[in-house]
Amino acid sequence: MRILVLIFFLFPVILIAQIKDYKIYDKAVKYNNEGDIEKAIKYANKALEKSSDWSKPNLLLASIYANNNQIELAADYLLKVYDENTLNDVKGIEQVAELFYNNGFYENALYYAEKIISNNIEESSFSSKIDKYIENCRFAIKALKNPIYFDAINIGELVNSSMTEYVNAITVDAKKILFTRRMESNQNRDQEDLFVYDIPSNTVSPLPFNTLQNEGAITVSADGTMYVYTACDRANSIGGCDLYIRQYSKEIGWSKEYNLGENINTNKWESQACFSPDEKYLYFISNRPGGFGKEDVWRSEITKKGFMPAENLGSSINTNQVEMSPFLHPDNLTLYFASDGHIGMGDDDLFVSRRVNAQEDWDIPENMGYPINTHNSENSLIVSSDGKTAYYTSDISGFGKEDIFQFELPENLQAEPLADLELDIITNKAGEEVILKNVTFESNSYALEQSSFAELNKLITYLQKNPNLQIEIQGHTDNVGNETDNQILSQQRAKVVFEYLSAKVENNLTYKGLGESQPLGENKEENRRTSFVIIN
Fold it and tell me: Which residues form the domain of 74?
């Protein structure tokens, strides 16, 4: 009887404790919607005074604190609603893990992600996501304990404005940076324009073909003649955003804008192009069908017939998620890009992949590490021809929403620096003469002087990286002496160079003596030269 009486007297108390004051809660919601966060918190807490386990006020407070970047406090309120040991609360615990993960609280995120797995939850709707959290958290915890040297410097308010800037490309001579700026149009609607930063003169100028529509994500060929960029909603668009090309020459200036056509563009989305330094391929991003994920890296071979049908870059680079902003370094062996599919710190991370030569497949990408990568989104990285000077877009600090920063890559992330000879090769078109400046012979002889081998070895290195490249070695003389003798001498000198190269590379090489038939000018020293032209 005493037990029954006790229960009877406790029952009203329990009922009172369970009362939910919706008027107070509705006030909290109202103030939150109006942006009066202080009052929203006040009334949400009032609602909890009468019912501490009421889910709605707890979830409202969790949302408020999460939006205010008070992550641990937000998680505390979520955990008042969801029990990590209750199977029915697994979706809520997933929210807790995701909250910690997205904000870089990797130890906490790993704990709750592993808790979900340990409870033998096998629902396909989120198991892959939880597996990814676990992999990334373990990587990130290790990366945080082993940071790399990283000192990012804002490149200044001449380039960076109160709006957002995205770095796109750098010329192979490292003198000009091409970037996109998000502008505010006269209709107060944001749109994007293209700009060039001339480093030696410290000047910024808009590209002359900007319009009131969007132009962005530009790349330039190594010889400076082809510019490909993204433009959206043009009258001749195939999809929403397509890749367009303009050609440039000093004699004529800029060509008209041309859509790159159906071999490149689809009714989907194409953007973020990058030329290979040998101008044989155009790399870009597309969400077209037939890939591995949501957005993949594709490439199109560039031939005399134009841009060939695009091919997917493959599963070593592309994942079932999003890849973006590919940048192929002028060494033609090092690919930088961003991805949220490979193991990393969360969201988009920057990666580097390498290959032995231009005909080989890309290796498994390497995460560039902390603090280059963080739990935030990092993308749009370019690297100068010196292999170590990098530029990227970030919101870590600066003049606007997102700015362009410069930093030096750690040695293990650097690309190969380009020798002057290699710069000469990739900035000349096929068929144009490339002079071997330091290749010399003994007087009236075809015996190579010892100082010549350093230059020839640089050419060997380039040919080994590009085994399909065909070149013709050419010998030249001045017009002193007998023309026939000069022709023979030039042939012998070209043959000696040919034989030295052929012993060390597998490329298809030929040679020819041109004697005194192709002088460069009146200077005799200048006319006595060994050179080559690229055949393909």
Answer: 1-81
How far apart are the C-alpha atoms of 140 and 142, rounded to whole Å? 5
| Amino acid at position 390, single letter | A
User: Cα–Cα distance between 352 and 140 in angstroms, integer?
Assistant: 17
3-class DSSP assignment, residue 22: helix
Tokens of 441: 């012979």
pLDDT, one tens digit per residue, over 242-267 is 999 999 999 999 999 999 999 999 99
- Where is 110: in which H helix or E strand? helix 106-118
CA distances from 518 to 216, 478, 483 (A): 43, 9, 12
Q: Residue 304's Cα: distance from chain center in Å? A: 28
Classified as helix, coil or strand, 18 is coil
Domain count for the chain, please give it.
Answer: 3
Between CA 371 and CA 152 the distance in angstroms is 10
Which CATH number is 190's domain given? Answer: 2.120.10.30
Taking each helix axis as running N to C, give the angle between helix 90-102 and helix 71-79, from 0 to 180 degrees, rounded to the nearest 10: 180
d(CA 344, CA 350): 9
Nearest to 367 by CA among 378, 357, 382: 378
Reported pTM? 0.91
> Measured between alpha carbons, how far is 175 from 152 in angstroms, rounded to an integer?
19
Domain CATH code at residue 25: 1.25.40.10
Q: Is residue 326 situated within a structural domain?
A: yes
Phi, psi of 63 (to 5 degrees): -65, -45
Q: Cα 97 from chain centroid?
A: 28
Give the whole-angstrom CA distance, residue 243 versus residue 513: 44
286, β-bridge pairs? 270, 296
Whether 25 and 57 have beta carbons less than 8 Å apart is answered as: yes
Digit-coded pLDDT (tens) for 75-108: 999 999 999 998 889 999 999 999 999 999 999 9
Same domain, 268 and 297: yes
Percent of the chain with pLDDT over 90: 80
Q: Which helix (H) or strand (E) holds 228?
A: strand 226-232
Give 305: exposed, middle or buried? Use CB within 10 Å, 0-12, 13-18, 19+.
exposed
Q: Are 255 and 225 in contact (CB under 8 A)?
A: no
DSSP state of 87: G
Nearest to 531 by CA among 463, 480, 476, 450: 476
